[in-house]
Design goal:
The protein is mostly helical. The chain has two helices and no strands. The longest helix has 15 residues.
Amino acid sequence: MTVYSAYNELSGPKQMLVFPRMGHAVPAEFGAARAEWIKQVSGME
């Protein structure tokens, strides 16, 4: 199973951020995007 097939099985609001050429590293933009997504789906925005 790939991350894409697992993602497609999830129900509810979702968003996938793809950072090619990052390997297993997490770019700084990910933290900000994650916080913004949490605000959106929890109704805090």
